[in-house]
């Protein structure tokens, strides 16, 4: 039995996709508040904790492009269901992991599932929504991906205060289970009728390139940009991506149409999406430390205080669709970037005497800017990609967003560390204590409590706020530059998709 796309069932299908990507974003940040617990309960060292985080992010970034290509070739619904099932099984394995090695392996498996879910779920959207509704659908889908990031610390903090550490992974089980049932019943199958061949060498180069670059960027703040391993992975990743591009240009039937980069709306849309991901992920690295260590909130309280960011994001996302229809994507995205810059500028005025009320205001404005910017960008980029290649185009976009997110933590985190260490007063401290205090504000607080040094505690809090303000100023400058570049170079409205179907949709099917 089939129903037309005017049926409300297409919105239930979208709900299945939004639920799917919600947990992908959530699991990117849910462990941020769980690391001390994992260190205590599993005996995990610093390197173990790093890999528990990185195994998910590196695999996710490395495999998204091949996953999108596979969806185009094998069928997007079929591959999405596979990714959901894998993510569900890996979440259960992570929850009951008996040691760090098992947890790292489970996190890597979750990364594989997430690498399938993100690009394939986005690629399904053109098959179930006509062009005039696609903006709203993209806004809801984007809301799912973006909301998961700040929700991670909120849910993770609450669960850790009431249950054991494995519970942070069990929240995925009912959500993914429901998404699996809904996707099976509601989503139509779609694929590239040309069935483009997957080149094993091309896939290997793409995986090695993206994985190497993301790994190097993640490791650089801890090991230093001049570290031989970091340099080797960054250079090796860049060479592998160069080889992938060369291979695609010479192929008669490339896996990825690099001609997409001749379209200004695809180029600038992708750059804008990567920048927003950079600032959002960087913000979620810096702000919880301020809320938790400087303002003295617990894990759950810190997560709750990110709610204004979510509220602003929801309002901006809902408004972006109507504004884009009326004003065009260039105007809305440029304005959204300026709102984002205003939020960062407000945050950069934080002082040691300020409280949460000031933080709530600027977090709301930042969320509003992200909501106004990200959905129109995603819609414009997807509209530039032929429908039969939606998986490859979505995979490319999502992979570059992950690179942007990794760069956000690396660059903004490094900037924070530099400004904090330079402003911190460690005079009179023993060398070992001074090193620990300069390493992070958490270390400084531990040293101050051990020595009963109130002056060090005050200096650490002031230095961290100074470092956070420097990060926010840099982010504001980047957002203003982004707004100018978008206003100058991005077309006002996306051109029609070259290979769109007559009505831009397929019918929804109750059965696979």
Automatic annotation (TrEMBL):
Entry keyword set: Cell membrane, Membrane, Transmembrane, Transmembrane helix, Transport
Residue ranges of the TM segments: 49-67, 79-98, 104-125, 137-158, 164-186, 198-218, 230-249, 265-286, 298-320, 327-348, 360-382, 403-421, 463-489
Membrane topology label: Multi-pass membrane protein
Record flagged with keyword Ribosomal protein: no
MF (Gene Ontology): transmembrane transporter activity
All residue ranges annotated as the Major facilitator superfamily (MFS) profile domain in the record: 13-494
Annotated InterPro entries: EmrB-like, MFS, MFS_dom, MFS_trans_sf
Keyword Cytoplasm: no
Any one annotated GO CC term: plasma membrane
Pfam families: MFS_1
CDD domains registered for this protein in UniProt: MFS_MMR_MDR_like
PROSITE patterns for this protein: MFS
Subcellular location(s) of the protein: Cell membrane
NCBIfam families, sorted: efflux_EmrB (TIGR00711)
Protein name: EmrB/QacA subfamily drug resistance transporter
Source organism (scientific name): Allocatelliglobosispora scoriae
Organism ancestry: Bacteria, Bacillati, Actinomycetota, Actinomycetes, Micromonosporales
């Amino acid at each position: 039995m089939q129903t037309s796309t005017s049926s409300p069932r297409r919105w239930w299908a979208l709900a299945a996709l939004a639920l799917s990507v919600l947990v992908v974003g959530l699991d990117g940040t849910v462990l941020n508040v769980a690391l001390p617990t994992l260190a205590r309960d599993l005996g995990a060292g610093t390197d173990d904790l790093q890999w528990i985080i990185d195994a998910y992010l590196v695999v996710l970034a490395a495999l998204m492009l091949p996953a999108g290509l596979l969806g185009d070739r094998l069928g997007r619904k079929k591959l999405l269901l596979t990714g959901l099932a894998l993510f569900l099984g890996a979440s259960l394995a992570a929850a009951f992991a008996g040691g760090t090695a098992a947890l790292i392996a489970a996190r890597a498996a979750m990364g594989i599932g997430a690498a399938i879910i993100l690009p394939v779920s986005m690629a399904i959207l053109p098959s179930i929504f006509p062009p005039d509704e696609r903006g709203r659908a993209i806004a809801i889908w984007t809301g799912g991906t973006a909301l998961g990031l700040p929700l991670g610390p909120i849910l993770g903090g609450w669960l850790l205060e009431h249950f054991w550490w494995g519970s942070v992974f069990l929240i995925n089980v009912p959500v993914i289970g429901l998404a699996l049932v809904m996707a099976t019943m509601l989503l139509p199958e779609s694929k590239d009728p040309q069935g483009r061949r997957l080149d094993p060498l091309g896939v290997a180069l793409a995986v090695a390139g993206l994985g190497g670059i993301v790994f190097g960027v993640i490791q650089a703040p801890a090991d230093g940009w001049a570290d031989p391993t970091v340099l080797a992975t960054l250079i090796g990743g860049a060479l592998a991506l160069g080889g992938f591009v060369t291979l695609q240009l010479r192929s008669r039937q490339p896996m990825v149409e690099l001609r997409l980069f001749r379209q200004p709306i695809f180029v600038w849309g992708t750059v804008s999406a990567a920048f927003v991901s950079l600032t959002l992920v960087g913000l979620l690295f810096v702000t919880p430390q301020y809320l938790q260590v400087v303002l003295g909130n617990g894990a759950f309280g810190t997560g709750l205080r990110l709610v204004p960011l979510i509220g602003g994001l929801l309002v901006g996302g809902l408004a972006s669709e109507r504004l884009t229809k009326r004003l065009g994507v260039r105007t809305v995205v440029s304005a959204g970037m300026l709102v984002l810059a205003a939020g960062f500028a407000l945050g950069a005025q934080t002082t040691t005497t300020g409280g949460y009320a000031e933080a709530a205001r600027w977090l709301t404005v930042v969320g509003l800017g992200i909501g106004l910017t990200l959905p129109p960008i995603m819609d414009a980029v997807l509209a530039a990609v032929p429908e039969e290649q939606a998986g490859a185009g979505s995979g490319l976009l999502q992979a570059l967003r992950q690179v942007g997110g990794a760069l956000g933590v690396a660059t903004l985190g490094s900037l924070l560390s530099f400004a904090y260490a330079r402003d911190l007063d460690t005079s009179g401290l023993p060398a070992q204590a001074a090193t620990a205090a300069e390493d992070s504000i958490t270390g400084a607080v531990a040293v101050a409590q051990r020595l009963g040094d109130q002056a060090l505690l005050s200096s650490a809090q002031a230095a961290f706020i100074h470092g956070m303000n420097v990060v926010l100023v840099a982010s504001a400058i980047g957002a203003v530059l982004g707004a100018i570049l978008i206003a100058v170079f991005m077309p006002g409205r996306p051109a029609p998709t070259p290979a769109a179907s007559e009505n831009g949709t397929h019918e929804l099917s109750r059965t696979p």
